[in-house]
Design a protein that fits this description.
2 copies of one chain form a homodimer. Chain A is built from 14 helices and 17 strands. Chain A is α/β, with parallel strands linked by helices and 420 residues long. The first copy, chain A, is elongated.
Chain lengths: 420, 420
């Protein structure tokens, strides 16, 4: 019998305990041994929980208990779980965590501390989708060319609504909050930070890149409007919040932002709260992994899969490799990434304005791929919509600043990157 | 250094050797040890191969060679590889196979013989997609509710062409043969047998069902016409060749056939030669795994992933569990499966015919969900198209026989199962 202790018995923790009990038969058949939740840690012992295991408010007691063989960390936060996971690993207790923030900041230190002790984290990226296993094991023969993931269900739900129903961002957000898909303070989701944590984890497994959230471009979906969605459609694109990691000549680009992607690509067809990660390997070509990215039971499914792997005696190094993965691969600094761009400007409707705008773009080394002029709601204004050929992020940023300084251009310029 | 011997150096074998050499850096980083192809077996030593390893025509010599640590079986066929894989396992040499036919017939004997020696087979189902790993490891917390897979690229390519371009089966088949997507004798692919072998393997991992190809319904796409495709579209369905394994009240249904599925489902969106497997778990909900189902490099990617797992020291029981998986689960006999059906009949265009047809359906316990009458190319004939509510396969088979006996009904009745 293998005894599991759970640090943090919230929604996911309750599901882990419940599934271990309710699906005990099949889990034992697959793991080869009975797996039992024996203890949970909560902050507030007086609160009622839907789970039938002993509870304590002392995490150290759980970690040190001779009754606990495997420690499951589901607390959230960074420094407190870091301290506790380190402690468990030092006690040579295998750890399973769903904590993406912890890993976004401390995965390399943890791999070092873990050594031969298993530290698994399937649930930290894309909930119930076994994407870590796929990348760490299933695609191990490949140099990874790119990863493109829809890894935040809140954003995908909101964008799907905006695409299908032409609804404004503010209204969709309110609806998502009412349905419980978005938090009261939605910044972590709609600002792209949640997706960024997940992307950093995948970027380590694929490329061995030791980056922190502050090292990469992180943008959200707050500035996307129905106009953008509509224009994207006209040109055969859908807009998705993507986490992108890809190998380019200069190294590895990693970034999270609203992205226009061809409507016929598989990942563009992923709607609603679902997640999906597309991985291109140099030998396998494109694969995609689809499923629920959140929810207590779906996340617990991934947590328990890790526990079963540990019980089976499987491990391998935490991030999937022991030493440098690909020599000389470095993160490309945000200013140096290259992309195609979509630009939306509101300008004064008079002769010479288009010339002023396009020559400003040209001066910054940006060449236009397609252009569309549309009426604005204001009588004396028109909308100019561009897609550009590939250029550097720094050139685009410079061009946008220069455009804003033109007195014929209104202040708000929308920029969305295009990914083919 | 780990030394790999390859039984069968055809397209996939060449790719395995080539990728082990060309991606040696990343594979070593991930496996923790260098992996080298040292010997290959071919039938005809005089034929030129695109691979730089020593070759022999003596498979036993490879298996017994002290130079070979891991045996990769890529020969095709059933009894000859069965003999050789048994021999390798008896020598305690880990085996990796891509041979679905071998596993469709002998997987349970092989699991028994393998014991603690690893026997991996990721490449046997859906080529480069790591679906075996997902099902065996990633979803191990779940009772599996259903598996629905597009597991034959030839059929999916042909159906996609028929759907998009309204082309007749015969012409699409000819095109597929010219492009190399279909064999000169296409029966194994278009008749559903290839998909059936793969389904049986997944059915064992998910449900522990020990079935052989002859125990399940295997139908192909030979009778699908542009009319069927068009009718399906009108009612919001796409037609795909699916391998289906699902838990129902009476046990587990397993079957391969052309299937009408809702156009908005993710798996309906999988086009061309690509494969995808949708798995619904009782806890995780729906997940889907998408990618290339064939091709030398894609298949080799899966073979090498298995080799890396073995080198990392991971194993677990071959089919993912040690003893009975779910007690009391049995294969539902083909005649007892339940489904909704689509029926297409050509009938004589005169009063009373519709009444005769519908009362025959009623007598066999079949109730109609929707009906459409369409003109036929023959002046005195019309087409009747039905979808039915759920009924037993045996009832439907009886009804079709009775319909054919009506003298107002032409002999060819098309039946396609509907899966929601």
């Amino acid at each position: 019998m293998v005894k599991v202790g759970i640090l943090g018995v919230g929604t996911v923790g309750e599901s882990v305990a419940k599934i271990l009990l309710e699906n005990a038969d099949i889990i034992e058949a697959r793991a080869g041994r009975k797996i039992v939740p024996v203890l949970g840690v909560v902050r507030d012992l007086s609160k009622k929980r839907n789970v039938d295991i002993p509870l304590t408010d002392d995490p150290m007691a759980l970690i040190e208990s001779a009754e606990v063989d495997i420690v499951v960390e589901l607390m959230g936060g960074v420094e407190e779980p870091y301290r506790l996971v380190r402690k468990a690993l030092k006690e040579k207790k295998p750890v399973v965590t769903a904590n993406k923030a912890l890993l976004a900041y401390h995965r390399y230190e943890l791999q070092e501390i873990a050594g031969e002790t298993p530290l698994f984290y399937e649930a930290s990226v894309a909930g119930g989708i076994p994407i870590i296993g796929a990348l760490r094991n299933g695609l191990s023969a490949n140099h990874i060319e790119s990863i493109k993931g829809i890894m935040n269900g809140t954003c995908n739900y909101m964008l799907t609504k905006m695409i299908r129903e032409g609804v404004e961002y503010e209204r969709v957000l309110r609806e998502a909050q009412e349905l419980g898909y978005a938090e009261a303070d939605p910044t972590f989701d709609v600002g792209g930070y949640d997706a960024a944590h997940k992307l950093l984890i995948l970027g380590s497994i694929a490329y061995g890149i030791d980056a922190k959230p502050e090292d990469i471009i992180i943008e959200g979906i707050e500035n996307i409007s129905p106009t953008d969605v509509e224009f994207a459609r006209e040109f055969g694109y859908e807009i998705k919040l993507l986490g992108i990691a890809k190998k380019v000549e200069e190294g590895v680009e990693m970034r999270v932002h609203a992205t226009m992607i061809p409507a016929e690509s598989m990942i563009a067809k992923v709607d609603g709260v679902m997640n999906a990660v597309s991985v291109v390997g140099d030998r396998v070509g494109e694969t995609m992994f689809y499923g629920p990215g959140a929810g207590g039971d779906a996340t617990a499914s991934a947590v328990i899969a890790d526990i079963v792997e540990i019980v089976r005696g499987n491990s391998g190094p935490m991030l999937g490799y022991k030493k440098g993965l690909e020599s000389g691969l470095h993160l490309v600094p945000p200013s140096k990434i290259r992309s195609q761009y979509y630009l939306k400007l509101k300008v004064i409707d008079r002769p010479g304005v288009l010339a002023a705008v396009t020559s400003t773009l040209g001066e910054h080394g940006i060449s236009v791929e397609s252009m569309l002029q549309k009426p604005s709601r204001l009588a004396d204004r028109v909308r100019l919509l561009f897609t550009t050929h590939r250029c550097r992020e720094s050139e685009m940023k410079g061009a946008i600043e220069a455009l804003k300084r033109l007195d014929v251009v209104d202040d708000s310029v929308t920029m969305i990157r295009i990914e083919k």
